[in-house]
Amino acid sequence: MILIAVCSAKGGSARTTTCVRLAQALNAARIPTGIVDLSPYPSVQFMLAPGDAIPVIGGRAATTPIAARSIVRPYEERCSCLLIDTSRLDDPAILPWLPLMNHFLVTMKIDKNSVRAMPSIWDSFDTWKAINPELKFLGFLPTCVEPSQQAVVRGLRNRMEEHFLPVAIPRNDVERLGPELVTRGAEWDTLAAHLRQRASLKQILPEPARNTEKGLVTRMWKLAASVLGPKVSVVTEAAR
Amino acid sequence: MTPDIQIVVVCSHRGGAWKSSVSAGLALELARGGIAVVIVDPAKAGGLSTFDSPDFRGLSTDHGKGRSHDRYPLSVVHLPEVLSSERPGPKLRSLAMELGAAVVIVDLPTAASAELASLLRDTHVAIATVPVDAVSFRALPPFLELLKEQRTMPGRSFAVRAAIVGAEEQSPRMKELGRVIGEHLQPILLRACLPVDEEYGALIASGSFPPVQDPGTPMALALEQLEGEVRSILSLHAPVPA
């Protein structure tokens, strides 16, 4: 099981939205994914759609890495990935989870304040690396991007391509109207596909059932044949 | 408790709930009215202390020592260590005394209950900013419960007020949600409701906070009203000019 922390230097950077949408996209890509909620005031469960089979795990109770491991152990069979919805960077609640994390990504809004806060990410990363030398930075994920900011995103990406994830999440995808009014944008699926490669995430859900439409047609022809007689049976055979 | 130094904590249960914007706007309004204010920014990443605007540029330092504004009695201090302190109140008051401030505004990051609780021991007013969205509304009760619980603990006498952010948006659904949230918060609701319009959002996105507050704009009016309400709760009086 791979643990990916979703962090940000500033509030309102669509961290929880990223966890939820990315988990939905990973599950759709047959990578069963759960969410560990480290927020002091949990809100992940309020963003899930009714049909989402995404386990949400409260993580703030863990005070040691052993406790953190015992919290996620029951999910090792069910999930090949857990996304950790962190709180602020210096939140002590992150510490027990650090030895368990494999990767982290950083959501950031495209504004001067967020760009200025970037050094604090590196400061925290240095501290985290001291605790977990295997921890890998996946990249910055621009979020809440207005159409007029696409050029800024391109500029940042040109300068620091290796530090940026290959998608930018538009403002429309993180509308603050509740989960029932928001459909998942294509960017999340692109991001899921990218992370599947980068973080070596395993697909373990079964292939979805195929040819269901053809099966339905065949069943309908059989039903018609049983009701209308042999002429229809001939047509049914021909249809096959 | 030193009576002449008052501590205001701006907090929220959600990220991006305009805590820094409300802290900065309120501080600027108080300072324009002649009340000396220090804003303490305990976020490690420095939320408010990274604002770039004519009013805030260069005010913050990373060494816990604020510098006064050239026009208003206002300082911004980046002080991450205050959150790890068991009782931040005395530290905040001595900082205010050092800077000659009468009011300390703490722009509290979406913090754990323990940190909020330790701050509330010496707080006079806690302002909860509540954005108008469905997730915020659903996640609100535990946060209000925490504030209520802290308020009833012995030795605490802070007032709790809630400021709604974004109810002025035009979508009928949002307006309805804003009305429902407002009703829910009624006993502690501030009349000042901070508008979030596209123009203002664009100004913040460009790092120009606080934007030019032309008299009569919805934001200027909301901040004026907020300042009036907070001033009244704190019974603050601007010094009489010499």
Provide tags for this entry.
heterodimer; A: 240 residues; alpha/beta; Rossmann fold; 9 helices; globular; B: 242 residues; 6-stranded parallel sheet; 7 helices; 14% strand
How would you portray this structure in words?
- The complex is a heterodimer of chains A (240) and B (242).
- In chain A, strands 3-2-4-1-5-6 form a 6-stranded parallel β-sheet, with helices on one face.
- In chain A, helix 1 (15-28) packs across helix 7 (186-198).
- With 240 residues, chain A is an alpha/beta fold.
- Chain A has one domain (2-198): 3-Layer(aba) Sandwich (Rossmann fold).
- Chain A is 40% helix and 14% strand.
- The relative contact order of chain A is 0.17.
- Chain B is of the alpha/beta class.
- In chain B, 38% of the residues lie in helices and 14% in strands.
- In chain B, helix 1 packs across helix 7 (218-234).
- The radius of gyration of chain B is 17 Å and the shape is globular.
- Chain B starts with 5 loop residues before the first strand and ends in an 8-residue tail after the last helix.
- At the A-B interface, helix 4 and helix 5 of A face helix 4 and helix 6 of B.
Summarize the structure.
Chain A is of the alpha/beta class and 240 residues long. Chain A is 40% helix and 14% strand.
